[in-house]
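Tutorial, part two.
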Amino acid sequence: QVQLVESGGGSVQAGGSLRLSCAASGRTATYAGIDWYRQAPGKERELVAAINWDGSTTVYADSVKGRFSISRDNAKNAVVLQMTRLKPEDTAIYYCKQLQYWGQGTQVTVSP
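Running the prediction step on this input gives:
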């Protein structure tokens, strides 16, 4: 069993920054990659960024490349999504995922 808890969401104006954190706990948390997804109203959930277990490999959606950065702190079993130059279209609920487990999500709202 893996437990995932997201934090750091909020409301910002376009061009601003937010830092999301995903804290993982459980038996298999340390040796698995973690993904960040988002879901906007009326849209399907989409992959935003992913990182492997040791942080050596990262993947980003084209829409966030150059603006978002994913990193992990294995000592804390946490993954951070640093979001910069936010746009209104980044507004969504952001979820972290590890294996088949999902967090509860955190709301990000970007106003024009």
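The longest strand covers residues 18-26. In part three we will examine how such features are distributed along the chain.
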